[in-house]
Protein backbone atom coordinates (compact mmCIF):
# COMPACT_ATOMS: atom_id res chain seq x y z
CA UNK A 1 0.00 0.00 0.00
CA UNK A 2 2.81 2.39 0.89
CA UNK A 3 4.55 1.65 -2.40
CA UNK A 4 1.37 2.41 -4.34
CA UNK A 5 0.87 5.65 -2.42
CA UNK A 6 4.43 6.83 -3.04
CA UNK A 7 4.18 5.88 -6.71
CA UNK A 8 0.96 7.83 -7.05
CA UNK A 9 2.44 10.89 -5.35
CA UNK A 10 5.50 10.68 -7.61
CA UNK A 11 3.34 10.52 -10.73
CA UNK A 12 1.29 13.47 -9.49
CA UNK A 13 4.33 15.68 -8.94
CA UNK A 14 5.89 14.63 -12.25
CA UNK A 15 2.72 15.63 -14.08
CA UNK A 16 2.45 18.89 -12.17
CA UNK A 17 5.99 20.04 -12.82
CA UNK A 18 6.74 18.73 -16.29
CA UNK A 19 3.46 18.60 -18.21
CA UNK A 20 3.16 22.32 -18.92
CA UNK A 21 2.35 24.15 -22.12
CA UNK A 22 5.20 26.66 -22.08
CA UNK A 23 5.69 28.34 -25.46
CA UNK A 24 8.88 30.46 -25.56
CA UNK A 25 7.53 32.37 -28.56
CA UNK A 26 4.77 33.80 -26.37
CA UNK A 27 7.35 36.03 -24.67
CA UNK A 28 8.69 37.55 -27.89
CA UNK A 29 7.75 41.22 -27.78
CA UNK A 30 6.24 40.94 -24.29
CA UNK A 31 6.55 44.11 -22.20
CA UNK A 32 8.16 43.26 -18.87
CA UNK A 33 8.87 45.35 -15.78
CA UNK A 34 11.35 43.43 -13.60
CA UNK A 35 12.45 44.59 -10.15
CA UNK A 36 15.57 43.48 -8.33
CA UNK A 37 17.29 42.95 -11.67
CA UNK A 38 20.89 43.79 -10.85
CA UNK A 39 22.06 40.52 -9.30
CA UNK A 40 21.10 36.99 -8.34
CA UNK A 41 17.92 35.49 -9.71
CA UNK A 42 16.75 38.91 -10.94
CA UNK A 43 19.79 39.17 -13.18
CA UNK A 44 19.16 35.65 -14.49
CA UNK A 45 15.51 36.50 -15.14
CA UNK A 46 16.59 39.52 -17.17
CA UNK A 47 18.92 37.39 -19.31
CA UNK A 48 16.26 34.76 -19.96
CA UNK A 49 13.71 37.39 -20.98
CA UNK A 50 16.32 39.02 -23.23
CA UNK A 51 17.04 35.73 -25.01
CA UNK A 52 13.30 35.26 -25.52
CA UNK A 53 12.95 38.66 -27.19
CA UNK A 54 11.02 40.56 -24.53
CA UNK A 55 11.00 44.35 -24.12
CA UNK A 56 12.41 45.17 -20.69
CA UNK A 57 12.38 47.81 -18.02
CA UNK A 58 14.82 46.80 -15.27
CA UNK A 59 15.10 48.35 -11.85
CA UNK A 60 17.29 47.82 -8.81
CA UNK A 61 19.05 49.84 -6.15
CA UNK A 62 22.51 50.19 -7.73
CA UNK A 63 22.80 51.91 -11.10
CA UNK A 64 26.27 50.59 -11.93
CA UNK A 65 25.14 46.97 -11.61
CA UNK A 66 22.01 47.71 -13.64
CA UNK A 67 24.05 49.19 -16.48
CA UNK A 68 26.08 45.98 -16.70
CA UNK A 69 22.92 43.85 -16.85
CA UNK A 70 21.36 46.14 -19.47
CA UNK A 71 24.45 45.82 -21.66
CA UNK A 72 24.36 42.04 -21.40
CA UNK A 73 20.63 41.95 -22.21
CA UNK A 74 21.25 43.90 -25.41
CA UNK A 75 23.96 41.47 -26.42
CA UNK A 76 21.55 38.58 -25.79
CA UNK A 77 19.01 40.04 -28.20
CA UNK A 78 16.50 42.08 -26.19
CA UNK A 79 14.89 44.50 -28.68
CA UNK A 80 14.36 47.20 -26.04
CA UNK A 81 15.97 47.55 -22.62
CA UNK A 82 15.55 50.49 -20.26
CA UNK A 83 16.56 50.87 -16.63
CA UNK A 84 15.79 53.05 -13.65
CA UNK A 85 17.74 52.92 -10.39
CA UNK A 86 15.31 52.83 -7.47
CA UNK A 87 15.38 52.34 -3.72
CA UNK A 88 12.18 50.54 -2.74
CA UNK A 89 12.63 51.65 0.87
CA UNK A 90 11.29 55.03 -0.29
CA UNK A 91 7.49 55.21 -0.45
CA UNK A 92 7.60 57.59 -3.43
CA UNK A 93 9.69 55.32 -5.65
CA UNK A 94 7.15 52.66 -6.80
CA UNK A 95 5.01 55.26 -8.57
CA UNK A 96 8.05 56.64 -10.40
CA UNK A 97 9.11 53.16 -11.49
CA UNK A 98 5.71 52.12 -12.86
CA UNK A 99 5.21 55.42 -14.67
CA UNK A 100 8.68 55.12 -16.20
CA UNK A 101 7.86 51.63 -17.48
CA UNK A 102 4.52 52.72 -18.92
CA UNK A 103 6.14 55.68 -20.66
CA UNK A 104 8.93 53.58 -22.17
CA UNK A 105 6.94 50.47 -23.14
CA UNK A 106 3.45 51.88 -23.67
CA UNK A 107 1.94 49.31 -21.29
CA UNK A 108 2.79 46.12 -19.44
CA UNK A 109 2.24 42.43 -20.10
CA UNK A 110 4.29 41.21 -17.14
CA UNK A 111 5.10 42.71 -13.77
CA UNK A 112 7.80 40.56 -12.14
CA UNK A 113 8.37 41.50 -8.50
CA UNK A 114 11.69 40.19 -7.29
CA UNK A 115 13.43 42.90 -5.23
CA UNK A 116 14.53 42.05 -1.73
CA UNK A 117 15.54 43.70 1.49
CA UNK A 118 17.48 41.23 3.58
CA UNK A 119 18.15 41.46 7.30
CA UNK A 120 21.08 39.61 8.84
CA UNK A 121 20.07 36.27 10.29
CA UNK A 122 20.24 36.09 14.07
CA UNK A 123 18.57 37.49 17.17
CA UNK A 124 20.05 40.98 16.67
CA UNK A 125 17.72 41.46 13.69
CA UNK A 126 14.60 41.79 15.90
CA UNK A 127 14.51 45.60 16.13
CA UNK A 128 11.33 47.56 15.37
CA UNK A 129 13.06 50.00 12.95
CA UNK A 130 14.62 47.11 11.06
CA UNK A 131 11.28 45.33 10.83
CA UNK A 132 9.56 48.48 9.52
CA UNK A 133 12.26 48.82 6.86
CA UNK A 134 11.84 45.17 5.86
CA UNK A 135 8.06 45.57 5.61
CA UNK A 136 8.39 48.59 3.33
CA UNK A 137 10.84 46.91 0.96
CA UNK A 138 9.52 43.34 1.03
CA UNK A 139 5.77 43.97 1.32
CA UNK A 140 4.46 47.52 0.98
CA UNK A 141 6.46 48.37 -2.14
CA UNK A 142 5.09 45.16 -3.74
CA UNK A 143 1.57 46.33 -2.93
CA UNK A 144 2.24 49.80 -4.34
CA UNK A 145 3.77 48.51 -7.57
CA UNK A 146 0.89 46.08 -8.05
CA UNK A 147 -1.87 48.65 -7.51
CA UNK A 148 -0.20 51.07 -9.93
CA UNK A 149 0.45 48.47 -12.65
CA UNK A 150 -2.84 46.58 -12.37
CA UNK A 151 -4.85 48.81 -14.77
CA UNK A 152 -2.30 48.23 -17.55
CA UNK A 153 -2.10 44.51 -16.80
CA UNK A 154 -5.89 44.34 -16.92
CA UNK A 155 -5.92 45.97 -20.35
CA UNK A 156 -3.33 43.53 -21.69
CA UNK A 157 -4.72 40.46 -19.85
CA UNK A 158 -1.24 40.22 -18.43
CA UNK A 159 0.53 38.39 -15.64
CA UNK A 160 1.86 39.31 -12.23
CA UNK A 161 4.78 37.19 -11.02
CA UNK A 162 5.73 37.39 -7.34
CA UNK A 163 9.10 35.93 -6.40
CA UNK A 164 9.07 34.98 -2.74
CA UNK A 165 10.72 32.54 -0.37
CA UNK A 166 10.11 29.30 1.44
CA UNK A 167 10.15 31.46 4.59
CA UNK A 168 6.78 32.83 3.46
CA UNK A 169 5.30 29.34 3.88
CA UNK A 170 7.42 27.63 6.52
CA UNK A 171 8.75 29.83 9.35
CA UNK A 172 12.36 29.32 10.30
CA UNK A 173 14.11 30.11 13.53
CA UNK A 174 16.05 33.38 13.88
CA UNK A 175 14.39 35.03 10.87
CA UNK A 176 11.17 36.37 12.37
CA UNK A 177 11.02 39.88 10.78
CA UNK A 178 11.91 38.53 7.34
CA UNK A 179 9.47 35.61 7.67
CA UNK A 180 6.73 38.00 8.80
CA UNK A 181 7.15 40.08 5.65
CA UNK A 182 7.16 37.00 3.42
CA UNK A 183 4.09 35.47 5.09
CA UNK A 184 2.25 38.77 4.65
CA UNK A 185 3.33 38.90 1.00
CA UNK A 186 2.01 35.42 0.32
CA UNK A 187 -1.30 36.18 2.06
CA UNK A 188 -1.80 39.46 0.22
CA UNK A 189 -1.27 38.00 -3.23
CA UNK A 190 -3.23 34.87 -2.39
CA UNK A 191 -6.21 37.03 -1.45
CA UNK A 192 -5.75 39.29 -4.50
CA UNK A 193 -5.64 36.21 -6.72
CA UNK A 194 -9.07 35.17 -5.46
CA UNK A 195 -10.48 38.70 -5.75
CA UNK A 196 -9.46 38.97 -9.40
CA UNK A 197 -11.09 35.61 -10.17
CA UNK A 198 -14.34 36.62 -8.47
CA UNK A 199 -14.37 39.88 -10.44
CA UNK A 200 -13.54 38.10 -13.74
CA UNK A 201 -10.38 40.17 -14.16
CA UNK A 202 -8.12 38.27 -16.54
CA UNK A 203 -4.81 38.96 -14.80
CA UNK A 204 -2.85 35.89 -13.70
CA UNK A 205 -0.89 35.86 -10.45
CA UNK A 206 1.96 33.40 -10.07
CA UNK A 207 3.48 33.07 -6.59
CA UNK A 208 6.99 31.60 -6.64
CA UNK A 209 8.37 29.83 -3.59
CA UNK A 210 12.15 29.64 -3.87
CA UNK A 211 14.93 28.51 -1.60
CA UNK A 212 18.41 29.85 -1.00
CA UNK A 213 19.91 30.88 -4.32
CA UNK A 214 23.46 30.19 -5.43
CA UNK A 215 24.85 33.71 -5.23
CA UNK A 216 27.44 35.26 -2.97
CA UNK A 217 25.20 37.79 -1.19
CA UNK A 218 22.52 35.26 -0.31
CA UNK A 219 24.96 32.67 0.98
CA UNK A 220 26.98 35.23 2.93
CA UNK A 221 23.87 36.48 4.75
CA UNK A 222 23.24 33.05 6.25
CA UNK A 223 26.81 31.80 6.52
CA UNK A 224 27.17 29.68 9.64
CA UNK A 225 23.42 29.83 10.33
CA UNK A 226 21.73 27.43 7.92
CA UNK A 227 22.79 24.10 6.51
CA UNK A 228 20.52 24.44 3.46
CA UNK A 229 22.09 23.88 0.04
CA UNK A 230 21.84 26.71 -2.51
CA UNK A 231 19.96 26.16 -5.79
CA UNK A 232 21.35 27.20 -9.23
CA UNK A 233 20.08 30.68 -10.12
CA UNK A 234 19.59 30.17 -13.90
CA UNK A 235 17.42 27.08 -13.39
CA UNK A 236 15.33 28.77 -10.71
CA UNK A 237 14.87 31.81 -12.96
CA UNK A 238 13.71 29.65 -15.86
CA UNK A 239 11.19 27.93 -13.58
CA UNK A 240 9.81 31.36 -12.63
CA UNK A 241 9.51 32.44 -16.26
CA UNK A 242 7.80 29.20 -17.29
CA UNK A 243 5.32 29.59 -14.44
CA UNK A 244 4.49 33.17 -15.33
CA UNK A 245 4.14 32.45 -19.04
CA UNK A 246 1.83 29.47 -18.45
CA UNK A 247 -0.16 31.45 -15.85
CA UNK A 248 0.06 28.82 -13.12
CA UNK A 249 -0.84 29.87 -9.60
CA UNK A 250 2.35 28.56 -7.92
CA UNK A 251 5.95 27.71 -8.70
CA UNK A 252 8.07 25.74 -6.23
CA UNK A 253 11.80 25.53 -6.85
CA UNK A 254 13.28 23.14 -6.01
CA UNK A 255 10.10 21.08 -6.50
CA UNK A 256 10.56 19.34 -3.14
CA UNK A 257 9.52 22.59 -1.46
CA UNK A 258 5.95 21.79 -2.45
CA UNK A 259 6.20 18.59 -0.42
CA UNK A 260 7.73 20.54 2.48
CA UNK A 261 4.85 23.02 2.45
CA UNK A 262 2.33 20.17 2.45
CA UNK A 263 4.12 18.49 5.35
CA UNK A 264 4.09 21.73 7.27
CA UNK A 265 0.29 21.83 6.92
CA UNK A 266 0.05 18.27 8.22
CA UNK A 267 2.71 18.64 10.94
CA UNK A 268 2.57 22.31 12.01
CA UNK A 269 4.66 21.92 15.17
CA UNK A 270 8.12 20.61 14.35
CA UNK A 271 10.17 19.40 17.28
CA UNK A 272 13.44 20.97 18.31
CA UNK A 273 15.34 18.12 16.63
CA UNK A 274 14.17 19.27 13.19
CA UNK A 275 15.10 22.87 13.97
CA UNK A 276 18.60 21.78 14.87
CA UNK A 277 18.96 19.90 11.59
CA UNK A 278 18.05 23.09 9.73
CA UNK A 279 20.14 25.56 11.72
CA UNK A 280 23.44 25.97 13.45
CA UNK A 281 21.72 27.06 16.66
CA UNK A 282 24.97 27.89 18.44
CA UNK A 283 25.93 30.39 15.72
CA UNK A 284 22.52 32.11 15.67
CA UNK A 285 22.31 32.39 19.46
CA UNK A 286 25.73 34.02 19.57
CA UNK A 287 24.80 36.59 16.89
From TrEMBL:
<dbReference type="InterPro" id="IPR051253">
    <property type="entry name" value="11-beta-HSD"/>
</dbReference>
<dbReference type="InterPro" id="IPR036291">
    <property type="entry name" value="NAD(P)-bd_dom_sf"/>
</dbReference>
<dbReference type="GO" id="GO:0005576">
    <property type="term" value="C:extracellular region"/>
</dbReference>
<protein>
    <recommendedName>
        <fullName>Hydroxysteroid 11-beta-dehydrogenase 1-like protein</fullName>
    </recommendedName>
</protein>
<dbReference type="InterPro" id="IPR020904">
    <property type="entry name" value="Sc_DH/Rdtase_CS"/>
</dbReference>
<dbReference type="Pfam" id="PF00106">
    <property type="entry name" value="adh_short"/>
</dbReference>
<dbReference type="GO" id="GO:0016491">
    <property type="term" value="F:oxidoreductase activity"/>
</dbReference>
<dbReference type="InterPro" id="IPR002347">
    <property type="entry name" value="SDR_fam"/>
</dbReference>
<keyword id="KW-0560">Oxidoreductase</keyword>
<keyword id="KW-0964">Secreted</keyword>
<comment type="function">
    <text>Unidirectional NADP(+)-dependent cortisol dehydrogenase (in vitro).</text>
</comment>
<keyword id="KW-0732">Signal</keyword>
<keyword id="KW-0521">NADP</keyword>
<comment type="similarity">
    <text>Belongs to the short-chain dehydrogenases/reductases (SDR) family.</text>
</comment>
